[in-house]
Amino acid sequence: MKVAVVGATGMVGEVMLQMLADRNFPVTELIPVASEKSVGKEITWKGKGYTVVGLQTAVDKHPDIALFSAGGQTSLDWAPKFAEVGTTVIDNSSAWRMDPTKKLVVPEINAHELTKADKIIANPNCSTIQMVMVLAPLHKKYGVKRVVVSTYQSITGTGVKAVQQLENEYAGIQGEMAYKYQIHRNAIPQCDVFEDNGYTKEEMKLTRETKKIIGDDSIHVTATAIRIPVVGGHSEALNIEFHNPCNLSEIREILHHTPGVVVQDNTDTYTYPMPLYAHGKDEVFVGRIRQDESQPNTVNMWVVADNLRKGAATNAIQIAEYLVAKELV
Ligand code: 2RA
């Protein structure tokens, strides 16, 4: 497979390259792609040197697959150009996610919807991926009616500038700000910009994308997304109301048998998910599973995942693996 990685020098792009190698994806030719300012940079992949190229050069090479993580405008401008030469694009930006003609895919949930005709495939938002990995199997069993989710999001979701801001603040250095406020010793109740309804784009992604991935517009989601000074992954407190009665041991059993989900749930041994331990892993970790004593058919749980891995790069490459396995590329 001739594979282009668009945004190869960014945080997600670098994890994409790592995962292509770690998962032994059948790459016959790698094409690292970045913006003009990074063209000519040398990168090493699987012990071999590669020179970063520009977008048009990459299109002209007619890759089989292009993994994008280069921002929404680049995806809007260039994904169609790759598709026109026969490339299948898997895009990690929000550009195509809610386009009714494009598939929004978490392989464990809805990869079966993919066909050869899908030339631009959207990778969901990181905080959505980890939530639907848990919601989807429970929705099948009990019918999800409403989700109240609070997220505690890693600064790596913002990118290198945010990591640098935290490091500067640790060192007492005043540097470039990724956020409006100090993030060290703080929690900022804003991820992305505000919409007219008072929610942020990040919060509305959890609402909108969940319905599309699970394929049920009746699922209600209300979210509050918070940025915290953590690097290992995103954490989420879920309050899930079902249409039907549920029981905790059955829920644990269902999640235990869900591919890509690991249950870490034992208060006697202080066993529960944390970003410190999810960092660098591909699974979605769930714990603190307990009945909501304030209302029937409702449970609380805590979900943690590495937002750069399953939340972005790994999910995108799992989509590519599915396409190859089903000979859709
Ligand atoms: C964030 N999910 O965490 C968004 C984009 N990666 O900022």
From TrEMBL:
UniProt-listed Enzyme Commission number(s): 1.2.1.11
Pathway stated in the Swiss-Prot or TrEMBL entry: Amino-acid biosynthesis; L-threonine biosynthesis; L-threonine from L-aspartate: step 2/5; Amino-acid biosynthesis; L-methionine biosynthesis via de novo pathway; L-homoserine from L-aspartate: step 2/3; Amino-acid biosynthesis; L-lysine biosynthesis via DAP pathway; (S)-tetrahydrodipicolinate from L-aspartate: step 2/4
SMART domains per record: Semialdhyde_dh
Active site, UniProt feature: 126, 234
A Pfam family that the UniProt record links to this protein: Semialdhyde_dhC
Role played: Catalyzes the NADPH-dependent formation of L-aspartate-semialdehyde (L-ASA) by the reductive dephosphorylation of L-aspartyl-4-phosphate.
Name recorded for this polypeptide: Aspartate-semialdehyde dehydrogenase
